[in-house]
Write a structure and sequence with these properties.
Blueprint (H helix, E strand, L loop, with lengths): L10 H20 L7 H28 L8 E4 L7 E5 L9 H29 L1 E4 L8 E3 L3 H10 L7 E4 L2 H16 L7 H10 L1 H27 L4 H9 L3 H7 L5 H11 L15 H17 L5 E3 L3
Length: about 300
């Protein structure tokens, strides 16, 4: 598509959504430390908006590099803590011509976002306090652990002992969300970033086969979370769980419940991928390496138990 045929940019919409999301993330961040702090709000909002902006602008620039008509990022505000946003998206208004273009557009966002999310999270962990889990207030929620997040905690807090965890600094909280968003986007299904990467790597038919299994696995994870959430509410089942010493495991497993929401989302974006004009093109070694690097990033950032109530 030629430049003069591109749709006009609705600057007012993109700018208003950006600043509205700045406001909602600032409000959410003000409560991220347990009390109310304008300083916490400013740090959290700056960090999470920076991660999202870099992620989406990388997609946008890659699309423009390949002469694919794409919108500027649409930021999605959420006027409630603890995050304050549903993320951001760009809209591709035409199908890329080659699998190379599909890969570059898909992989650029997660890798660029990681370049911001990892240092933000690590610096935040350095500033986070170590607390005994038993001393956390009633109703406290613990963030889930990915392999990368566990490694960063071990490096930032080598003094961490069993029965202890970090009370997240606003920067660490923003970085953790950035890692989670990266893993969710890299799921190899449909038109998620991971779906674009998978399509570029293996083509349309295999893309659908893999995506089908991804949807099933995500659904099973969500159902396990639902079982762990509601089974203890049945008196007879709760008694069996306690006698088996599985109460803590059930609490942890309840943190998989959010995967139900993602399973529903994948029903809409996790199916087919539009074919490119040159379906027969094959990726070169460098770009195949990028695709496999994205898979490694997915593995190390995947957080099966997204959150869980405190287990003393």
């Amino acid at each position: 598509m030629k430049d003069d045929a591109r749709r006009p940019t609705r600057w007012w919409l993109h700018i208003s959504l950006f600043f509205t999301t700045c406001a909602t993330t600032f409000y959410a961040g003000c409560y991220s430390g347990g009390g109310f702090s304008l300083r916490d709000g400013a740090m959290f909002s700056s960090a999470i908006m920076g991660i999202l902006l870099v992620h989406e602008m990388a997609h946008f620039l890659a699309a423009r590099w390949h002469q694919v008509d794409a919108s500027l990022p649409y930021f999605i505000p959420m006027p409630l803590p603890p995050i304050g946003t549903f993320g951001a998206v760009i809209q591709m208004r035409e199908v890329p011509k080659t699998r190379t273009a599909v890969l570059d557009i898909g992989v650029s966002g997660p890798l660029a976002g990681m370049l911001v999310a990892v240092p933000v999270c690590f610096v935040g962990l350095l500033y986070s306090e170590v607390q005994a889990i038993s001393e956390l207030p009633a109703g406290a929620i613990m963030e889930g652990n990915s392999l990368l997040y566990l490694a960063m905690k071990a490096l930032a807090k080598p003094q961490l002992l069993p029965g202890q965890d970090v009370f997240l600094h606003p920067l660490a909280w923003a970085g953790w969300i950035g890692l989670l968003v990266t893993s969710l986007n890299l799921l190899p299904a449909g038109q998620l970033d991971g779906g674009h990467i998978l399509y570029a790597l293996v083509g349309g038919s295999r893309h659908e086969q893999v995506a089908r299994w991804v949807r099933r696995i995500v659904l099973v994870m969500g159902l396990v979370g639902l079982v762990c959430t509601f089974l203890p509410l049945i008196d007879s089942a709760d008694q069996i769980v306690k006698e088996a010493g599985m109460g803590g495991l059930m609490l942890r497993g309840s943190g998989m419940t959010p995967w139900i929401v993602w399973a529903l989302l994948l029903r809409f974006v996790g199916k087919g991928h539009p074919p490119v004009h040159d379906e027969d093109q094959r990726l070169g070694l460098g770009r195949r390496s990028l695709a496999w690097l994205a898979l490694v990033v997915l593995v190390v950032t995947l957080t099966p138990v997204i959150w869980s109530p405190v287990v003393s």
